[in-house]
Write a structure and sequence with these properties.
The protein has four helices and no strands. The chain is an all-alpha fold and 103 residues long. The chain folds into two domains: 56 residues, no CATH class; 47 residues.
Length: 103
């Protein structure tokens, strides 16, 4: 009998913890939203994840960002190369001016 009370006490503590953390309210509101859906989603777990903010970005958004990142990396590499070439040209002009000044 004592074991039963101990586990009941632990359950009650855990329930209070979930309540205090707002977990019960969040889950209840998401489950109510699912219940009130006219057309139930084919994947209820995805619905819960989406409404709890756990689903992450959509695959199309990830692909769009990946392509944008690749384009920006290519632009960065072009600009670094252009910067290097311009620095070399500047050094050539500076050394030519120094030679002209010493002659």
């Amino acid at each position: 009998m004592a074991h039963y009370r101990a586990s009941e006490s632990r359950r009650e503590q855990f329930r209070r913890y979930l309540e205090k953390a707002g977990v019960l309210d969040s889950l209840t509101s998401v489950l109510v939203a699912l219940y009130e859906e006219n057309e139930k989603p084919s994947n209820a777990l995805d619905f819960l994840k989406h409404h709890l903010g756990l689903s992450g970005p959509a695959p199309a958004e990830v692909e769009k960002l990946r392509l944008e990142m690749l384009a920006l990396q290519q632009q960065y590499e072009r600009l670094v190369e252009e910067n290097r070439a311009l620095k070399n040209r500047l050094l050539q002009y500076e050394s030519a001016q120094e030679e002209g000044a010493t002659q």
